Amino acid sequence: MAHQWPDPRSAPGAAMTPRHYVLRAQAPADPADLSGWQRQPVLAKGAGREITAVPGGEPVRRMVESTVDQIN
Fold first, then answer.
1. Reduced to 3 states, what is the DSSP secondary structure of residue 22?
2. By the 8 A CB rule, do 46 and 17 touch?
3. Contacts of 6 (CB under 8 A, 6+ apart)
4. Taking the model in full, what pTM does it have?
5. Count of beta carbons in the 10 Å neighbourhood of residue 43
6. Contact, 14 vs 8, CB < 8 A?
7. N or C: which end of the chain has fewer CB within 10 A?
8. How far, rounded to the nearest angstrom, does the alpha carbon of residue 18 sit from its chain's CA centroid?
9. What whole-number distance in Å separates Cα of residue 51 and Cα of residue 49?
10. d(Cα 10, Cα 4) in Å, to the nearest integer?
11. For the residues of 37-54, what is the DSSP string, one character each?
12. What is the pLDDT of residues 23-38, one digit of tens each?
């Protein structure tokens, strides 16, 4: 049986976010193409609370951390 998501209207103010994020170098020509996304280089990945940069991804890590600091 497929997972049943709760009705967001049952918990006002609640939000659901992905458990895992992947930051790619760029979007593919067709954003609906899953294999196109998978072919793009991974710059960073993680749960959103921390950033795990891949080799060569340190500039992206600094950019993301700087942006988060500005928001907070």
1. strand
2. no
3. none
4. 0.46
5. 21
6. yes
7. N
8. 7
9. 7
10. 14
11. HHHSPEEEEESSSS-EEP
12. 888 899 999 999 999 9
